[in-house]
Amino acid sequence: MAFASPHSLCIILLFLLPVCVLAQTSQNISLNSSLTAALDKNDSWKSPSGDFAFGFQQIEAGMFLLAIWFDKIPEKTIVWSPKGGNLVQQGSTIQLTTDGQFRLNDSQGKQVWSANLAGSGIVSYAAMLDTGNFVLASQDSSNLWESFDEPTDTILPTQILDVRSSSLVARYSETNYSNGRFRMRLDSNGNLVLSTVHFPQTSPNRDYWSANNNGGGFQVTFNLSGYIYLEAENGSILSSITSFKASTSNFYQRAILEYDGVFRLYVYPRNNSATDGKPMAWSTLSFVPENICNSLIDQQQVEVSGFCGRNSYCIQGDDKRPKCDCPPGYIYSDPENKMNGCKRDFVSQECNGDQDADHFDMRLMMSVNWWGGDYERHNNVSESWCTQEKKDHSAIRRNPRRKFTKPHLQGT
């Protein structure tokens, strides 16, 4: 058997090497390319390093979400999806058409979403970048559309938010990617704020946290050092949003406005040798506000909803995460989503005078209040007097005693 000489083998390797390098650094997606949502395959467009992927993720039985995710970790954590989080059926497609349009069609061929390219130019190719940014580019490599300009609830290192950018809108729940009840935005005065929204719309309702920069903010920057900060147009830092940092060379990072209204910075070790004592999982590095239960207290605007739904109250656990509890005699309206409030777990009784007072009792709840819901206040009254009052209110034990309208809102 004849073998190639050592010299010819070296020549072959020298010619092959540049080709391999080129394949790693350039993975453009050509026109007339598409992906299909399917149960039996997991096709996606990956970034050169393989850190990120673009494609369909199955969220529930037979239903898929078009998304970008971290592809090298088991969780496949999603960092972007089209606004609204619409799920599509098996057989739906995302296609970069021959004329440069980027469209998501459902299994019946109906358009669900498309990239807004109005007046942008002619798209020549698409690319999934190692930053986590998916771009549609022209022949001269200018970005005509990019996912970084249309964030959902997450930002990544190198990404910025400015007055012209879309704001971050929290998802509805941990597993429901439709729009939720909280929003992060840089307003027209340059103030960075977190606010509740007029759900189910996404227009801002009431601010519950701000960066305290008194205006003048130009953009929010998430830099490669892991810092997130608000800066002025001249580049000066007005306010630090996160209090800790981690190296992006050792950790995957993401900052997300979560469904509970808290903006958190997470890190995930890239490998076992550079964990810095952290588990191979997402760990919270920093978050704002410090206590959202207290941040959402509003004694003036009765109709503003807080973190928890009706007839429930918000407490912050030892893990610094908020949760919603029900008062005695109430149960969760939706056990799968405890933010949806509570409902009565007893048969309502009529109160027809003093003789019926024995049918009612008082339940003591320490350090709980429903802010802004009191409609009457009474001095020098007893518990027995409260039980003789009609059923459609609750009382709070403080001086003076107060009656509260139902449903109970903004409980803390």
Describe the structure.
It is a single chain. This protein is mainly β. The protein folds into three domains: about 30-150, Bulb-type lectin domain (Agglutinin, subunit A, Orthogonal Prism), CATH 2.90.10; about 150-290, Orthogonal Prism (Agglutinin, subunit A), CATH 2.90.10; about 290-410, no CATH class. About 5% of the residues lie in helices and about 35% in strands. The chain is built from three helices and 32 strands. The protein has helices at about 5-25, 290-295, 385, and strands spanning about 30, 35, 45, 50-60, 65-70, 80, 90, 95, 100-105, 110-115, 125-130, 135, 145, 155, 160, 170, 180-185, 190-195, 205-210, 220, 230, 235-240, 250-255, 265-270, 285-290, 315, 320-325, 330, 340-345, 375-380, 395, 400-405. Strands 3, 4, 5, 6 and 7 form a five-stranded antiparallel beta sheet that branches. Strands 1-11-12-13 form a four-stranded antiparallel beta sheet, with no helix packed on it. Strand 3 (about 45) and strand 4 (about 50-60) form a beta hairpin. The radius of gyration is 27 Å and the shape is globular. The chain starts with 5 loop residues before the first helix and ends in an 8-residue tail after the last strand. The model is unreliable at about 1-25, about 300-305 and about 400-405 (pLDDT under 50).
